[in-house]
Amino acid sequence: MSTTSNRDLLEPTASDGLDLIDRARTGDLEAFDELCRQHGDRLLCQAIALSGDSAMAEDLVQETFIAAWRGLPRFGGRCHFFTWLCSILIHRHRNSRRKKWPLPFSFLFGGEREQAENFLATVPDLSPTPGSSAEREENATRVLRSLEKLPAKQREVVYLRFYAGDSLEGIAAALDCSVGTVKSRLFHGLEKLRRMKSIAENRNL
Amino acid sequence: MKTCARYRESIALLAAASLEARETAEVKRHLEQCPSCRAYFQETSVLCDSHTTASRQLPSEEVSPRIYARVASAIRGRDPRSMPGSGIPLWLRIASVAAVVLMIAGWFALLHRPTPPTQIAGELTPEPERKGEPDTVSANLITYRLALNRSPEALDQLLNHEAARSNFSSEPSFRITMARSSLDP
Hints:
- The structure holds 2 protein chains of 2 kinds.
- Chain A has helices at about 5-10, 20-25, 30-50, 55-70, 80-100, 105-110, 110-120, 135-145, 150-165, 170-175, 180-205.
- Chain A contains 11 helices and no strands.
- By secondary structure, chain A is mostly helical.
- Chain A folds into 2 domains: about 10-100, Rna Polymerase Sigma Factor, Chain: A (Orthogonal Bundle), CATH 1.10.1740; about 110-205, Winged helix-like DNA-binding domain superfamily/Winged helix DNA-binding domain (Arc Repressor Mutant, subunit A, Orthogonal Bundle), CATH 1.10.10.
- By secondary structure, chain B is mainly α.
- Among the domains of chain B are: about 5-55, no CATH class; about 120-185, no CATH class.
- Chain B contains 9 helices and no strands.
- In chain B, helix 1 packs across helix 2 (about 20-35), helix 1 (about 5-15) runs parallel beside helix 3 and helix 8 packs antiparallel against helix 9 (about 170-185).
- At the A-B interface, helix 1, helix 3, helix 4, helix 8 and helix 9 of A face helix 1, helix 3 and helix 4 of B.
């Protein structure tokens, strides 16, 4: 039974810098620059894992920071600053994918279920895999990419829960919805992932 | 796997370490008694752990300094929209500035409006003659001189105006003749 708090494991080492955020809101560019540098590397990791491309990831990070600057008055401090950045990042990523692929994959290729099965057949087992760090990084990226099969709203919640590591209340604040809505989306997202994994495993047997 | 419907969502949230404390004890008690729900919990926990592990094993990268420089440049901007909290659209700002410029230009244009030429004759129309006033002729001559200074056409216009007023009576005609003769070099 898993009792470890994911939030504790993923808590950033630096504080959220509430004074930096307050100063940045007043137009202090140096404070905002410091905030960016505090969270930039973590954000870039997320962006690379989401997009699979370093150049695109850098663009995503840049766009995310610029959008964060413009939206600073809307950040109420009810979630971690990094969670809020991730919510912007995942929106930007979705928009950039939509520009590339205006039609959903399932429409183009048909058989969303079959595609999910084929994709998840390559998702590795959860047990710690021996091997190089490069292999682990690649596996981790593929696990993250498995979220792509979820509907957008469920994907956002599952992503913020496990990859930004915030509480349900923080996620609700970042996405501007109720905690009940976050719970429902998290539950349905996990259900869908579990079903897809189960189907893939049954096909491999 | 058939689980107890009323606990299904709570079990999933427990596996994701997202269940509220007041519900956790009840769900754990149920898990101890229900094998089917216990299996569901195990399966969901494995899934959640895979994502937790993945989040810690993502490839690590450092943001290039040029990214921070680009962000700072965009914010310091060329783009007026890039000020924090600026919700006024750019087109509205440009339209406001253009409206103010047009108003100022219009005000200046009104201030320096040129005098229409058709008013010259009216302005220079001499006062109606009053009997007994010794300066009437000289006042009229001054008016004619002013009109001639403007242009010969202006003097002509003035004299025609006077002629029309006097209905070509002899006395005004005499005055017209006198005016013309006095103005001849």
